[in-house]
Design brief:
With about 325 residues, the protein is of the alpha/beta class. Helix content is about 40%, strand content about 10%. The protein has a five-stranded parallel β-sheet with strand order 2-3-1-4-5, sandwiched between helices. A two-stranded parallel sheet has the order 6-7.
Length: about 325
């Protein structure tokens, strides 16, 4: 029986980079006994590296029986390990769908956790701002729903078994060579030297400056759904990396950021004591110098500069 390595994200912890790696290298991995399932949780060359939509389809249909059958079939493939990646599995109570599915399977669950203030602001920029208008109103509910790592870990331990949840902290000092893909590779139990893998150049799924986000939040004209990235693809094509590599503009005030850290403090301390004994803290403390806290006037000026940069970039493309 092949071991299943179930990478469950979480959201905004480099999952897209991991999935891009799996897509690019599934043939090389297979030569070393590691099978990347295709996009339908089967075996074919239709490998995208991600399994989000396949799992979500089972969830939507409450089809636990076929989910279990699909995982069991993968475990019987001629491979040392089967690789699956779906960041939606760390959301809410999705672990409950696996209560029977993981019975008698050799499965390790790999979870990356991120400091919650960073998780929330990145999630807003990536998904929720495309369907919501008011960041502060969204944040009230988001604090209850997201970033509760203790609940997530204990839920997955309940279905995969104690000791079968691998917890990695998503911050540079904790990742192998400061890179989430290298860190993921370190979990694959490769025999001998690592193969020559193909890697993406630059960021796989960049987050753009929150100078832009308040201008476009909730626009049904710009976003067909929370997964629609066409607008930001245009920004990247016209302005290059400029708005993806700047110092982070904070939609949170200093006080809000500190309050969020305090809100999650007790469960973070619990996780640190239980899973990282001897470590002084779970996450690095907030360094406010890494963020730009803009006045309303400065934010408006930056937004006008952004619009102007788009117009100028389009002018330069004219014949």
């Amino acid at each position: 029986m092949a071991r299943i390595l179930l990478h469950i994200g979480a959201n905004k912890t480099g999952s897209s980079a991991v999935q891009d790696f799996l897509r690019r290298n599934y043939k090389t991995l297979l030569a070393h006994g590691l099978l990347v399932a295709d996009k339908e949780l089967a075996t074919s060359d239709r490998v995208t590296g991600e399994h989000v939509f396949a799992f979500q389809d089972f969830f939507n249909r409450s089809d636990r029986g076929n989910l279990e059958a699909r995982l069991r079939a993968l475990s019987r493939e001629n491979a040392r390990m089967v690789l699956l990646s779906a960041e939606n599995l760390s959301n809410g109570a999705n672990f409950q769908f696996f209560k029977q599915a993981l019975t008698a399977l050799d499965c390790k669950v790999l979870l990356y956790i991120r400091r919650q203030d960073e998780l929330l602001t990145s999630s807003w920029q990536q998904w929720n701002s495309k369907r919501e208008v008011d960041f502060d109103a969204w944040l009230v509910l988001a604090l209850q729903r997201h970033g509760h790592w203790q609940r997530c870990i204990e839920g997955w331990e309940g279905v995969a078994g104690p000791g079968n949840v691998i917890i990695r902290v998503f911050q540079g000092a904790d990742l192998v060579r400061g890179d989430v893909v290298d860190d993921y590779i370190s979990q694959l139990d490769l025999d001998g030297p690592a193969p020559q893998f193909t890697r993406a150049e630059g960021l796989v799924n960049p987050s753009y400056s929150d100078v832009i986000t308040p201008m476009v939040s909730g626009s049904k004209f710009l976003f067909a759904s929370e997964h629609d990235n066409d607008f930001y693809t245009m920004v990247g094509k016209l302005t290059g990396k400029h708005y993806a590599t700047q110092k982070k503009v904070s939609l949170l005030s200093r006080e809000q950021r500190n309050k969020i850290i305090e809100y999650y403090r007790l469960q973070n301390e619990h996780i640190c004591r239980r899973y990282f004994p001897g470590r002084p803290r779970l996450f690095e403390p907030v360094d406010h110098s890494k963020y730009e806290y803009l006045t309303p006037e400065e934010l408006t000026r930056r937004q006008l500069e952004f619009v102007t940069s788009l117009i100028y970039a389009m002018y330069k493309r004219l014949p």
